[in-house]
Design a protein that fits this description.
This protein has 264 residues and is an alpha/beta fold. Helix content is 34%, strand content 11%. It contains 9 helices and 6 strands, in the order αααβααβαβαβββαα. A hairpin with a 5-residue loop joins strand 5 and strand 6. Helix 5 packs across helix 9. The longest helix is centred in the middle third of the chain and has 17 residues, at 148-164.
């Protein structure tokens, strides 16, 4: 399918029209990488890929939408924000090749949820155990700030990704207030009953949601995003990150997860 015409990947309704029709996570990931529905984000991600940062001048940047990462039967989902301009937008994998990813994957490794503590490129051998990482916005946005319209346009991808996980996540950790605000309406639309008033984001905040029949349970956990700023200012410490990930893993039923360890 080409970019031209009103029905191609550059059409504003491409995510809303395409996401509900895919039947597997692999198919969804492939469709995501073709999307050109947000002109500002397309222009930015491709410009970054052309100009490159001096430290990465020998890289061939991915410069496309970045799909989720991790097993499709994961009982724990982590939801972030968007790919970093010189991280996921360069490497083609979420939280890979940037300081946020350095912090996140080190914490997942410490808990036994990742096969190695570092993530440098798509072929580095990294595997996740029982965890899938997702983003509400699949293209790197200028200044890490997608617009409300861009967030809404990209939302159908995340909604469908959550729906396609089998048998479905038992816990979701929202890494940052942006992810929390995106998730609440998506979960409500998927049939999960939200408490009133709607819960407010905070690090360590937990909410248990029931489905419409009252039989299923989904645990939503809030955690600060492991951004370079949050980590450098100690708003979030390595110990604090491990603790919230450990809590999400236990709520998801990953009983073999390692303890979060001492403060760091």
């Amino acid at each position: 399918m080409g970019d031209g015409g009103q029905r191609g990947p550059a059409a504003p309704d491409f995510p809303a029209r395409t996401a509900p029709a895919v039947r597997s996570v692999a198919e969804l990931d492939a469709a995501v990488t073709t999307c050109r529905a947000c002109p500002r984000l397309v222009a930015w991600r491709e410009e970054v890929g052309r100009l490159r940062r001096r430290a990465f001048r020998d890289w061939e940047y991915w410069a496309r939408p970045v799909p989720g990462f991790g097993p499709v039967d994961a009982p724990l989902a982590l939801v972030g924000l968007a790919p970093a301009a010189h991280g996921g937008n360069r490497t083609g994998r979420v939280f890979t090749g940037d300081p946020s990813g350095d912090a996140l994957y080190a914490a997942l490794y410490d808990l036994g949820l990742a096969s190695q503590p570092t993530a440098t490129h798509r072929g580095d051998g990294l595997r996740l155990h029982g965890v899938r990482i997702m983003v509400p916005v699949h293209c790197a946005p200028p200044e890490n700030r997608p617009t409300t319209e861009e967030r809404a346009r990209c939302g159908p991808w995340l909604a469908r990704e959550l729906a396609l996980l089998r048998p479905g996540p038992r816990a979701v950790v929202a890494l940052g207030g942006f992810a929390w605000r995106v998730l609440l309406p998506l979960l409500a639309d998927a049939g999960w009953r939200l408490p009133r008033p709607r819960p407010v984001f905070g690090h360590g905040v937990e909410v248990t949601l029931a489905d419409a029949a009252g039989a299923g349970r989904l645990h939503l956990v809030g955690g600060y995003h492991p951004s370079q700023r949050n980590m450098s200012t100690r708003t979030l410490t390595p110990a604090g990150l491990r603790a919230v990930l450990h809590r999400g893993a236990r709520l998801a039923g990953l009983d073999t997860v390692a303890p979060p360890g001492e403060a760091g």
